[in-house]
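Could someone model zinc ion with this protein?
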Amino acid sequence: MSPTCKVDSTSSQLTESDLDITPPRKITKINKHRQQKFRDTWLKNDDYKQWLSKVPDDQYKAKCRTWNVIMNAELTVIKNHMTSKTHLRKPLASQQSISTFIKKTDEISTKAKASQALELKLCGFLAEHNISFTTLDHLTTLLKSSVPDSEIVKNMQMKSTKGTAIVKNVIVEAEKEYLEKNCRSVGSVF
Ligand SMILES: [Zn+2]
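Reply:
Sure, complex below.
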């Protein structure tokens, strides 16, 4: 009798204590989550009233009017959203977009000009040193593969046909004008 009684008492004590501790904790946790409803006082709060609103069909949800975001109607969720990147960053991004756009287009135009200058200099170099313009095909490929981090090199488009055209139409014409001016000034001296 006595050993069975001992076993019964200890086992029952253990299960009772287990039951006493665990179930209430679970219940309170679940209840806390379920009971969060939208509170009208939030609409009067200076921090929330400019962007927070109710969701008509769901009292457990709240809505950010600024970005049309639906979230759980929990104060922690609302506070987290208010300080989140999605809520704060976007207005800043739209303010910055114009100036960054202008900066970017400036950068693009200066880089495009630098690419053109590089094309002209390479052409001038080849012409000056009497190097065949067919080497441009290989030189451009070589530069692009060797300097992959340069936008200027990346944007340059210089093959032998274009190089020849640049020399004929740009450099030769410029040289002609330069020579003509020099000849005139020389002629005026004589
Ligand atoms: Zn928001």
